[in-house]
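Support request, please re-run this one:
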Amino acid sequence: MPISINKPLAKNVKFDTDMMWLELVDGRKLGVLLAYFPRLLNAQLEQCQHYEISGGGSGLHWDELDEDISVEYLLMGIGDRTQSYPPSKNLAA
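Re-run finished. Output below.
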């Protein structure tokens, strides 16, 4: 019997002081350290909460922060591959 692998799709995103919590349509939840995404780490909580689920759930987009994240890459452990930023703790709302 062949194994069917479905592409992971985002349903919802939440944040706390140092984590992004991604809920997938298949029920899985993934916690990702914001340190892997400096634009999100250095943003205010309100900015992080203004995201768009794009590509039918395959991506996450923050227009104001110029950030795009692939859900599939998150599951593979791939973080931001652009320049590094100094760490900040602006999410402590």
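The helical segments are 38-41, 45-48, 71-75. The chain has a mean pLDDT of 88.
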